[in-house]
Amino acid sequence: MTIDYGFESADLYTPSRRQGTLRCYRNHTTNTSLYEQIGGQDITTSINFSALAHYTRVPNKG
After folding, report:
1. Where are the alpha helices (DSSP H) in 1-62?
2. Considering the domain boundaries, does residue 39 fall inside one?
3. Residue 7 forms beta bridges with which residues?
């Protein structure tokens, strides 16, 4: 089981995300200032759930 921020490929690769999905969280707010508050904020990005499903699929042995 994976619980994280992410989207299917069709929703991840859209014009609204041309700058990427990397972001920081501090005190329940988001920002994109990666080099401010070093060690004092969480850094995350959205993952591609379509790729995750594709590359973790177990081949049918039957």
Report:
1. 9-12, 49-55
2. yes
3. 48
